[in-house]
Design goal:
By secondary structure, the chain is largely without helices or strands. The chain has one domain. Helices cover 14% and strands 0% of the residues. The longest helix is centred in the middle third of the chain and has 9 residues.
Length: 66
C-alpha cells in the first residue's frame, strides 16, 4: 500500500478496479490499458464530480461549466 494524501479509497487496494484515480489523477493500476474517451464520456464523468477521467486521465474540471 502506498502512503497518499488523496482521500480516494482505491489507493489502499492492491489491485484497484480503475486505472486512474478520479480525484488526484494518479495511475493506480498499470494493468488496465489506457482508453480513448469520447467527449460524451467526459461530460458524464465530470457530472459525477470526477476531477480526472478514470480511463484516460484527462483533467475534467475545466469542462464542467464550459
Amino acid at each position: 500500500m502506498r502512503k497518499c494524501k488523496c482521500p480516494n479509497k482505491n489507493h489502499n487496494l492492491a489491485f484497484p478496479p480503475i486505472r486512474i484515480c478520479p480525484q488526484c489523477g494518479e495511475i493506480l493500476n498499470f494493468m488496465i490499458p489506457e482508453n480513448s474517451c469520447s467527449a460524451a464520456t467526459h461530460v458524464r464523468k465530470s457530472a459525477q464530480n470526477d476531477a480526472y477521467c478514470t480511463d484516460c486521465g484527462e483533467y475534467l474540471l475545466s469542462q464542467m461549466h464550459g
